[in-house]
User: What shape does this take?
Amino acid sequence: MKILVATHNIGKLKEFEAILKPRGYTLYNLEDYKVNMDGFEETGETFAENAMLKAHFVHALVNMPVISDDSGLMIDALPDILGVKSARFMGEDTDYKIKNQAILDLLSSKEDRSAAFHSAIAVVGLQGDLLFEGQCDGHIAHEILGDHGFGYDPIFVPNQRDMSFAQMGDIEKNKISHRALALEKFVEYLNEKED
Ligand code: IMP
Assistant: This one.
């Protein structure tokens, strides 16, 4: 099956490829179809709304199924700064080393370090509008840990492991991450449809 992944985020794209390619999907990206997302605004209040808006925006421009992800980090002690606004925290162009250090500084006086990554995956143009969500619970580390992955990976330690997403590398992360869980639900949905 051919599907266009609606993201400019190389880290996300690699994860989509690692999870969907071995299952027989042929993935295209925005560059392949010269899709310009400049006019797109994330106006939704939830990950699900934003994922669906993104997938519809791109699907209106290309004649093929589109899959999109809207995701982010939620930190219980800092409820207002990340979530659906995770990419915009301190500005989209700010280096994640600076963003991650700022989060560690904001949490330095807090006891509760619990956090979760959430992903909503929307698929448009295949069988109506499809939506799948995944969440990975964990906590924020006390320092920057590791240099694999992208974004907030170096400060997030999932409950199932004793290391950050950025320390464990792609294969381990793709077994337990929010995005992997949401994509797994998409794959299961299609497998059930085929049966
Ligand atoms: P989006 O592109 O609007 O969905 O923004 C997602 C934001 O959450 C970006 O700041 C990403 O860096 C961050 N994010 C989402 N998933 C992950 C992840 O798996 N690891 C690290 N950061 C992530």
In short: The chain has a mean pLDDT of 95. The beta strands are 2-5, 26-29, 66-75, 114-124, 129-140, 156-158. The two ends are 16 Å apart (CA to CA).
